[in-house]
Write a structure and sequence with these properties.
By secondary structure, the chain is α+β, with helices and mostly antiparallel strands. The chain contains two helices and three strands, in the order βαβαβ. It has a three-stranded antiparallel β-sheet with strand order 2-1-3.
Length: 76
């Protein structure tokens, strides 16, 4: 596949200190798991930023991108 692999990416938004202290709010998922093709996990993480909704784009310090390599049962 041209040296590309499948990765699953998800983006969460951590709460502010105020939200955590006053409301007990936890992190929330702002980008549901998405499959992306990338040469490595770092490139997959960069692609995940394209899925971040505009209203959260300026909250970089609270965003967390998780990348999981996709492994099929046949490849195991």
């Amino acid at each position: 596949m041209n040296g590309l692999e499948v990765f699953l990416v998800v983006v969460t938004l951590r709460p502010t200190k105020k939200q955590l202290d006053e409301e007990g709010t936890g992190a929330c998922i702002i980008v549901q798991p998405q499959a992306v093709l990338a040469k490595d996990a770092q490139q997959a993480a960069m692609k995940a930023y394209r899925f971040i909704p505009e209203e959260h784009a300026t909250k970089e310090d609270r965003l967390e991108v998780r990348v999981l390599p996709f492994r099929s049962a046949a490849g195991a």
